[in-house]
């Protein structure tokens, strides 16, 4: 029953957000890995502003691994925690060269060995870089999953596991894009816009808002 309602909700969201996708710009799995690390607690738009210059100067793991700390920091300095992120990106690039023959690995357990890469980032890369079914649980996906009654946990790994039980594998990537858009544009943290939410009739959240005021 929960699966049936969940698929109905996803169909409705597909109509509401046909263009739902990752909002970071990238051309390959390595660039996706780098921009995802940069985007932690930073707006995607800001990352998209700096990434073209970053990849022009350091177009691959080998170049990134050899990057001069200060020169690279100068390019990414408008992004929060840029020094730490820069360190992680250089160390991650070195590890890709040393342990993975210069290629971004395609397994979550290998990706999480890279500096600055947690399970969410690993799942983002698998799903969006390689098209491998994965469920990256960011703050939007977590909040919406809880409000829709699909998970009672706040831990992203447990939410991922709950969503994986509800949806068939071939839907995982699309589900996370759609939930991400619902959370970003309508089901916002402080005041969800339930009055304009296309799935309000199926949402059990007790704190639903009925109007703007
Ligand atoms: S009805 Fe409100 S709480 Fe439920 S999913 Fe929509 S915006 Fe979120």
Automatic annotation (TrEMBL):
[4Fe-4S] cluster binds at residues 187, 194, 197, 203. Gene3D superfamilies: Helix-hairpin-Helix base-excision DNA repair enzymes (C-terminal) (1.10.1670.10), Hypothetical protein, domain 2 (1.10.340.30). Keywords: 4Fe-4S, DNA damage, DNA repair, DNA-binding, Glycosidase, Hydrolase, Iron, Iron-sulfur, Lyase, Metal-binding. GO terms for molecular function: 4 iron, 4 sulfur cluster binding; class I DNA-(apurinic or apyrimidinic site) endonuclease activity; DNA binding; DNA N-glycosylase activity; metal ion binding. CDD domains: ENDO3c. Binds 1 [4Fe-4S] cluster. It catalyses: 2'-deoxyribonucleotide-(2'-deoxyribose 5'-phosphate)-2'-deoxyribonucleotide-DNA = a 3'-end 2'-deoxyribonucleotide-(2,3-dehydro-2,3-deoxyribose 5'-phosphate)-DNA + a 5'-end 5'-phospho-2'-deoxyribonucleoside-DNA + H(+). It comes from the Bacteria. PROSITE patterns: ENDONUCLEASE_III_1 (PS00764). Its EC number is 4.2.99.18. One of its GO terms (biological process) is base-excision repair, AP site formation. Its cofactor is [4Fe-4S] cluster. Residues 38-185 form the HhH-GPD domain. The keyword Iron applies. DNA repair enzyme that has both DNA N-glycosylase activity and AP-lyase activity. The DNA N-glycosylase activity releases various damaged pyrimidines from DNA by cleaving the N-glycosidic bond, leaving an AP (apurinic/apyrimidinic) site. The AP-lyase activity cleaves the phosphodiester bond 3' to the AP site by a beta-elimination, leaving a 3'-terminal unsaturated sugar and a product with a terminal 5'-phosphate. Belongs to the Nth/MutY family. This is Endonuclease III. It comes from Candidatus Atribacter allofermentans.
């Amino acid at each position: 029953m929960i699966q049936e309602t969940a698929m109905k909700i996803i169909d409705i969201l597909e109509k509401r957000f046909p263009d739902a996708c990752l909002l970071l710009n990238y051309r390959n799995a390595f660039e996706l890995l780098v921009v995802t690390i940069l985007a932690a607690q930073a707006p995607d738009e800001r990352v998209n502003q700096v990434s073209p210059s970053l990849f022009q100067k350091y177009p691959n793991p080998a170049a990134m691994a050899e990057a001069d700390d200060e020169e690279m920091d100068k390019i990414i300095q408008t992004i929060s925690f840029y020094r730490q992120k820069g360190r992680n990106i250089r160390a991650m690039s070195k590890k890709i060269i040393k342990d993975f023959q210069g290629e971004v690995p395609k397994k979550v357990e290998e990706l999480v060995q890279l500096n600055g890469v947690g399970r969410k980032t690993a799942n983002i890369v698998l799903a969006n870089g390689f098209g491998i079914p994965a469920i990256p649980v960011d703050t939007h996906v977590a909040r919406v999953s809880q409000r829709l009654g699909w998970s009672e946990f706040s831990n992203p790994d447990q939410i991922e596991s709950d969503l994986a039980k509800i949806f068939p594998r071939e839907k995982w990537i699309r589900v996370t894009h759609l939930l991400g858009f619902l959370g970003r544009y309508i089901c916002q943290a402080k005041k969800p816009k339930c009055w304009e939410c296309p799935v309000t009739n199926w949402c059990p959240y007790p704190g639903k808002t009925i109007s703007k005021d």
